[in-house]
Amino acid sequence: MRHAVTLSALGIAIVAYGCGSDEREWMKLDERYTIAEFRRDLSECTVKGTLDEECMKARGWVSVAPPKAEQKKEDPLTPSGRGGRGKY
């Protein structure tokens, strides 16, 4: 019974981490690295469930895409989101 409770708690923790985690992809330019190195740096740069982007950059990592909150949203009222007047 004790093992079932422990496994359940571990499963819930993993799911909760996955839901709140940063989904950006990171890489190092012109440098080889391993998954273990990435996981280590990601773990050390994550504080209270929040990724410290500056910490990752200081370790040589580059974000492949900006976080979802920072991605530009197109203006639905203008063609291609460029602003100005379009033909209707």
Describe the structure.
By secondary structure, the chain is mostly helical. It has a domain at 21-65. Helices cover 40% and strands 9% of the residues. The protein has 3 helices and 4 strands. The strands form 2 sheets. Strands 1-4 form a two-stranded antiparallel sheet. It has a two-stranded antiparallel sheet with strand order 2-3. The longest helix is centred in the N-terminal third of the chain and has 19 residues, at 2-20. The chain is globular, with a radius of gyration of 20 Å. It starts with a helix and ends in a 25-residue tail after the last strand.
Q: How is the secondary structure organized here?
A:
Blueprint: H1 2-20, E1 26-27, H2 35-44, E2 46-47, E3 50-51, H3 53-58, E4 62-63
Antiparallel strand pairs: 1-4, 2-3
Structure, briefly:
With 88 residues, the protein is mainly alpha-helical. It contains three helices and four strands.
Quick tags:
single chain, 88 residues, mainly alpha, two-stranded antiparallel ribbon, 40% helix, 9% strand
CA-based shape: globular
Largest sheet: 2 strands, antiparallel
Q: For the largest sheet, list the strands in their spatial order.
A: 1-4
Question: Per DSSP, what share of the residues sits in E-state strands of 2 or more residues?
Answer: 5-15%
